[in-house]
């Protein structure tokens, strides 16, 4: 078992200094370089806090203390400001509340602060972690070694952890199939980048595959990279649609309802009729999609259910009832409204 003394000898400082660093003692200043070396030694030597170590050694005799707390890694305000994630968060929070768990919000700065990471993750102040925002692979793997982890939404769909998501390519295919059935042959796309490039985004990949399947031409000037900004979607859609009828798309498939709503405003300002001159189809089925004029046809994503399934998956891992890393994809549904 690694002790504070071992870390002190490894770094070449006193046990007291190591203790101050690990406890993040605000009453004593420790050189930043020494702090960094101590935390590197903690990771290299695999130091475990004494209390938890005793629980492991006497697991058959001592009942491990339950904190009934779950860390939720997401950008501050995401659950309040983004209608898509707010419904996922509602499913997560209500499911954990029924089981007597509380949620602790973490952000990227917390995970990069060794003192905070050590206190919350290594000392197991939380029993599990739900990841929404992306984190560096090194941090992800360390979290996975210490506590059960589940990823929600696209950031973790290709990682070696349990994930809950929806099939973005299939969702787009449903939308494209509907537009083709309505007679559209010139179909554009409004989306945003992932990892700095549009081509890696799964909804865009679904769009390209569907064009090929339905024998439609891929026209680069029909593709709008909005960078997930409604203002950019509005401006670029207005530029795209301000053309002669034969030179503009007859329909736009949008990677989110918010981008579609921004595009619809641009069409209105150009006096284009929806759907006669230009049709719009979104993805999400957020509340605003029902109230815009005309009401937006969309691919409904079960966000609330994604939250429930993610929470239950993590609870099963905490209870040791689920050891495998599962990839769960929930189904999407086409909702036909007036915009198509």
From TrEMBL:
The UniProt GO MF terms for this protein read:
DNA binding
Which Pfam families does the record cross-reference, listed alphabetically?
Answer: LacI, Peripla_BP_3
Which CDD domains is this protein grouped with?
Answer: HTH_LacI, PBP1_GalR
Keywords of the record, alphabetical order, are: DNA-binding, Transcription, Transcription regulation
Q: Record keywords: Transcription included?
A: yes
Q: Which positions fall inside the HTH lacI-type domain?
A: 2-58
Domain of life, per lineage = Bacteria
Record flagged with keyword DNA-binding? yes
Enumerate the InterPro entries for this protein: HTH_LacI, LacI/GalR-like_sensor, Lambda_DNA-bd_dom_sf, Peripla_BP_I
Q: What is the protein name given in its UniProt record?
A: LacI family DNA-binding transcriptional regulator
Organism equals Sporosarcina gallistercoris
Q: What is the lineage of its organism?
A: Bacteria, Bacillati, Bacillota, Bacilli, Bacillales
